[in-house]
Amino acid sequence: MDPREELDGVWRRTDALFALLEPEALFDQPIALRQPVIFYVGHLPAFAWNQIARGLRSAGGLDAHKDDLFARGIDPVDTDAYAAARPEDWPSPAATLAYRDDVRARLRDLAGTLDPERDPDRAVLHTVLEHERMHHETLLYMFQQLPADRKRVPADPPVPAGHIANAQVSIPAGTATLGADEDAPFAWDNERARHEVLVPAFAIDALPVTNTDFRGFVDAGGYRERELWDADGWAWCSRRGLVRPHGWIERDGRPWHRTLADAVPWDDAAGWPASVSHAEASAYARWRGARLPTEAELHRAAYGAPDGTERAFPWGDDAPTPAHGNFGLRRFDPTPVGAFPAGASAWGVHDLAGNGWELTSTPFAPFPGFAPMPHYAGYSADFFDGRHFVLKGASWATDEVFLRRSFRNWFQPHYPYVFSKFRCVHPASGGGRSTR
C-alpha cells in the first residue's frame, strides 16, 4: 500500500476517536498518571514528524515550543501524578489542531518519497503507523474514565451467540518459539531475536477469569488476606484501601461496571473477563492455588499444536476475521468469555486474541540477541527495569496488526486502566480451587 494511504487511514481512525469526546473534554485529565487529552492531539503528529521528517529526512522543526511540549509522555509509578491540567498551560485546541494539520500535510508530501520495501524507510514508517495505532487504545482507556456527559459513544452491535464451559486444559511439555522471524516486514526491538524455549507440561484454564469468578475472591475477603499478595502488591493495596477492582463502581447502593460510554449494572457484565491489575490477578491466582502463566506458556497454549507445529494465530494461519475474537475496535466493550469459539487454539484454549490483554508472570526483559532500534533506541530498553510485566493477545480496542504472534505489550503491576484479562495455570496434573 502507498505510505500516504496508510497514513491517511490511521489519521482517519485517530480523528474518529477524538470525535467521541465533547469539545470541552480536551483539557480533561481523566487519569492522573497521564497527560491531559490535549497532549495526545499534539503528541501523535509530533512523534510522526520527529521520526520521518527530522529523523529520516533530516528536516528541521516546525514549532520549537510544540515540538518539545508534545514530544514524549511518561510511564510513572503509581505514586506519581501530573499536576492537574490547566487550559492556560497548553496551546488552544485551534492552535494544536493547526499544528497537527501542518504536520500531516508536510508528512503526506514526504511519504511519497518513502520506499516501504527498504530499510530504514520501512522501519520508520511502520514505527509511526504502529505508534499511532497503539495510542488509539491508550486514548480509549483514558476516555473510559471520563464522565458520560463528556463523550458520545455509539452502541455496540449485539453480542455474538455461543458460550462454552470452563475447564483445565492439559498441555504437554514442548517448545514455544518466541520472537519475530528474521524476514518479518517489521518488528519492534523487544520482539527480536527469534528463539525457542522448552516449556514443561502445565494445565491452563480454557477461559479467562470472569467478573463472576473474581467476585468470589472479593466476597471471600481476598483484598484483606495479606498472604495472597506479594509485599509490593500488599503495600499498594493497603495504601489505596482497595476492596474491589477499579472498574466496579457503586451507584445508589448497587454494583455497576464501568464501560466506555458510562456503566452497566454489574450483572450485565458478570460474564465479561475480569479486567484487573497484575497485582490483583496474581493475588486471585494464589487464592485459587494457582499462578499466572509465563509468556512462554501462553505462547504454547495459543500457538502450539499437538503435532508439534506452531500457528501464526491461535485458530491457525488464516488472517483474523470478526469470527475469531473481539478485537479491531469493532466494539467498545468486552463480550462474555467464550463467545468466539472459532478463535480457539489447537488445544481448545479460548479468547487468546482479543477481549483483553492477557497478563503473564514474565517480567518485560530483552530476548537473547536484543539490539535497540537505531531510530528509537529507548522504545523498549527504558522499560527493562523489573517493574513491568509482559501482556499478550490484544483487547477489543487493539488494532489487528498487533495480533502477530511475536508482539509484546507491557505495563506496571499496579496500573488498573488497561483493557486486560487473565487466566490461571495449574500443575500439569490439574488441581487448584475451581470456581466453576
Please outline the helices and strands.
Layout: H1 3-18, H2 37-56, H3 64-69, H4 93-111, H5 121-143, E1 168-171, E2 174-178, E3 195-199, E4 202-205, H6 211-219, H7 231-240, E5 248-251, E6 254-258, E7 263-265, H8 278-287, H9 295-303, E8 357-363, H10 378-381, E9 389-392, E10 409-411, E11 420-421, E12 425-426
Parallel strand pairs: 8-11
Antiparallel strand pairs: 1-4, 2-3, 4-12, 5-6, 6-7, 8-9, 9-10
Helix pairs in contact: 1-4, 1-5, 2-4, 2-5
Q: Which term fits the overall shape?
A: globular
CATH architecture of the largest domain: Alpha-Beta Complex
Distance between the termini: 48 Å
Number of domains: 2
- The pLDDT mean sits at 93
Strand-pairing-aware structural class: alpha+beta
Lateral strand order in the biggest sheet: 10-9-8-11
Poorly predicted regions: 430-436
How much of the polypeptide forms β-strand, as a percent range? 5-15%
Number of distinct beta strands? 12
- Counting DSSP H or I runs of 4 or more residues, the number of helices is 10
Give a verbal description of the structure.
- This protein has 436 residues and is of the alpha+beta class.
- It contains ten helices and twelve strands.
- It has helices spanning 3-18, 37-56, 64-69, 93-111, 121-143, 211-219, 231-240, 278-287, 295-303, 378-381; strands at 168-171, 174-178, 195-199, 202-205, 248-251, 254-258, 263-265, 357-363, 389-392, 409-411, 420-421, 425-426.
- Helix 2 runs parallel beside helix 4 (93-111).
- It starts with a helix and ends in a 10-residue tail after the last strand.
